Please model this.
Amino acid sequence: MKSDRAVISIDAMGGDAGPAAIVGGMARSARKNPDIRYIVHGDEPTLAPLIAKRRELADLVEIRHTTDVVKMDAKPSIALRKGRKSSMWATLQTVADGDADVAVSCGNTGALMAMAMLCLRKAPGIDRPAIAINWPSRNPAGYNILLDAGADIRADARDLVQYANMGVEYARLGLDLSRPRVGLLNVGTEEHKGHPVLQEAAQRLEELAGDPGASVDFVGFVEGGDIASERVDVIVTDGFTGNIALKTAEGTATQIRGFLREAMNYSIWSRLGAIFALTSLKRLQKRLDPRRVNGGVFLGLNGTVVKSHGSADATGVSSAIKLAFTLARDEFSEKVAQRIASVTPEAATERNGRQEDQKRTGG
Amino acid sequence: MKSDRAVISIDAMGGDAGPAAIVGGMARSARKNPDIRYIVHGDEPTLAPLIAKRRELADLVEIRHTTDVVKMDAKPSIALRKGRKSSMWATLQTVADGDADVAVSCGNTGALMAMAMLCLRKAPGIDRPAIAINWPSRNPAGYNILLDAGADIRADARDLVQYANMGVEYARLGLDLSRPRVGLLNVGTEEHKGHPVLQEAAQRLEELAGDPGASVDFVGFVEGGDIASERVDVIVTDGFTGNIALKTAEGTATQIRGFLREAMNYSIWSRLGAIFALTSLKRLQKRLDPRRVNGGVFLGLNGTVVKSHGSADATGVSSAIKLAFTLARDEFSEKVAQRIASVTPEAATERNGRQEDQKRTGG
Model:
């Protein structure tokens, strides 16, 4: 992408809140950012009036009609077999065709990843794509990056090293860090802790970080309590553990927000106190609002996909679109691919081969 | 234990805060509960003056001198080989000998579990002991139970089913529930989600819960966000995942407490508000205080062991002692063993065999 504009391909039928929330999020982002254009996929008779009502969206949206919807609880294998006419598939295909820069969907994560692998294909040298998320942290950037947040429940040592490399590139672009610090999530920081796969990955990352001019700084094992800390920027784990950690943290935050609400409503004095502290409490609420950090990024594909929370409302969708826009401007997936190629010799060969093919076919 | 009294065997040398914090916790518990007696293990020249200073402890404490200390970062295998003269070993041996009802230590978890397995031995029918913790929840009891919180990073389907049975017995005693609901921690609630081990364990638990008169209610898979919910009472997982979930939740709670402090200090208005809401905010702080839920219980051994947080202060140690006292009164480990025997035929045979042996030897 060379212009300042970015075209976002959006699945308007995914998610629990329905097309209205998604169109609401699109309008919100369009108000804030004049450089966004949309290609939106879904049931045209439903979408056209929703979009017509939003003046902010006039002339910014192309609707592409689709007939099918991938259900939120569909098995990925079934979605793959039966979902070729779905809004989700069309959303990804538009990026694969080069009509849009980034895809955004609130739909079923498993189905979206399975379709993205087929439609966009894995980047050269990548065995397993991963989902990276921003995790509110005590670092100056305000966020750490955790991956894999749930693309694949398995990961071997080689996969974990690839996640580290992809996460480093994401942190360089997304958090503007020159030499992000990587930690491997484990049950203790001592060398002998954890599964053999983790010990093998740690050894490989140490070698990688030891190279002269290495752009990775490996801090070793980190624990669950370190995910939000200033010890580390990128936390690497398998998709099973990453998903459990993410949802446990979200659950804990929701629980404490409830406790805080109860505490401020407890007596006439606390209610009075809440009035005095209103501005501060609102800032705190905004800080704890999970909708503000909505959006998992699929790394390791030939094209960028942002997965929004299934339950996202207009605010959540707008956050995901903002993230998608940033990644589109940075030519993100291309840079991740370059990075993987620079650290894995096979990927470099594969990549050069593809470029040769493209030259020959004029692509 | 037939009397109302309970003798607690305490490792005074474990933990980061040193013997003073442990003696402080003992004194705190003694003030609240006249039925506690202590056998305390460690360096007598250090302990005697600390204990003499506390009037509450007069005549309640027997000091047993030990020379060695297991280091917080010692490998379990090395602790086992070299730790026979340690305060940790003596603490466990005192329970094995029948001199005390429950053991309490703030020391190295891995070393404590390895020594406990050798010293107390696994209960009949148990392959892998587990660590159970209380997790603040929205249920009426105020807590859910999660296990394994980190005894063993591996667990097969049979282990997970045993954890479920041990957790149910702990919930019956600790949370006073007649038919605790068990959930298996996974990355989704759909049947096809997760590792094959989880699917096999789910199937076995469904069979178990389907038996007429079953004391287990199996709710299926639960996610990270459900650990604190009212959907479930006992959350079963392997020790790797359980440890990551626990530490992630603790880290999130610490982070949010920091945000709240900042918010209430933000302006003159919020500081004024905090003064009005002081009582409520203090209640909230108490509710979020991790020291109040200090203490993991080792399940599946011939004897009860409570592992306190390594960084526990006097308040934390006192919480762990309170938990130990409750378990001693309930003849806890005996009841867990009975339960395992009632659901696993091999365990029943093994257990009856042991009782026969005891009769023959007059034990």
Confidence is low (pLDDT under 50) at residues 359-363 of chain B.
